[in-house]
Amino acid sequence: MAIPFNDMPLRRKVILIALVSTSVSLLSAFCVIILNERLTFPKTMGQNLSNLAQIIGDNCSAALSFNDNKTAQEVLNTLKANPHIRKALLFDAKRGLVAQYPAGSLENIKLPEGQKEGVGFTPDGVTIFRFVLAGRERLGTLYLESDLGEMKSRLLNYSVMTILIWVAAFLISLVVASRLEKRVTQPLRLIVEKMQDIARGEGDLTKRLEVSGEDEIAEVAAAFNTYVEKLQTVDEMKLGLISVVSHQLKTPVAEVNGYIENMLEGLAGEVTPKQRQYLEDMREIGKENYRLICDLLSASKIERGVVSVNLNPVSAKRLVELSIRDYEEPIRGKGLKLFLRGLENDFKVYADQDKTVETIRNLINNAVKCTDHGSLTIAIEDLSGQGVIEVRDTGIGMSRETMDRLFTKSRVMGKEAGRAGAGLGLYIAKNFMRLQKGDVTVTSELGKGSCFRLTIPKVPEPGGVKV
Q: Do residues 239 and 96 both lie within one domain?
């Protein structure tokens, strides 16, 4: 199915315009040549046929004077050298046929009475009547008839030449346009890619496009740089505000959570079952608020580039144990089964223990929230040069579109963030792993669950013996 012009990529539009322009120009030139040939060549043919008739008539004058029909026939037979002459008739002064070409019977052919000299044009040929004179005396009349083969041959040659030129010009235009279109589309493509990165929350607002020239593309690039500069200013103001507000909220939220714990422990007096239920709900809300504040602070530090890591050999088993410690009760509370795999084959990785634990905790927290029944599995695996920690659940799963945006800021407060929180945890996890020269990836299927996979550089085992 043909793609509408408006829906084509700009690269194809530029090439198509160049090819169509070349083709239209050549076709126009061809039409002009053909039209000129059709208008002028018949007259040229008439003139040439008139000159030929003059020569043949002069050569036949002596034969007509002496009634030498044989010589007259021989003169007409010389016309076979011209393949376009279809017919030739030579009449004497009494309008009787003396000779004809091609040779044939001379009976019952008479020159029409009162026939005048002149050139005539028919749809398929050119004719001429010319008097044969000796001085002022009319000795006879010569009739010649020619086809349009010469003109058709010329038109065919023009057509073949035009096709060959068009093919050559098409290929040349294609090569030239393919090379030149990059100078037009590449800057625009770069602008589009940067805008898409910004829309996904992955763009670097500190970088600017290089502007060269003074054309419209340069104006677009300059306008884009101005736009990014303003975005950067707004983003810096936002990060500053988030950092200040988070710092201001962190302490009072922690204190409120502490008071709630004290009340649950009975330090403020005995509480009723109903009050305890309220306090437990408030404790869970307080924990979530505290986690959100910590996530906002971490995201703010990542954006400002002030996050550092302290890499040391750490037990993979220890990382899992520290991460799961606060989630065993919520997992049991939801009726989920918890499976730990591979912990018996412990190994060490180069990692920042606190940040890696926070990363795994974010993944576990996400899995618990998105799983209503089934199980949650945490496994470690020793691969050559890499340590792997997997967090697998049997929850609601994700679509391909969601996975494409999963580790970006664009999820924050987005439509996917409703169940798993604000969406900052996975963004923080991705950046924490990058700082440790590791990575976090995900595979998922809607309705069947998700699997997050952390890869961390493993500490080499001396002498091939496991640590």
A: no
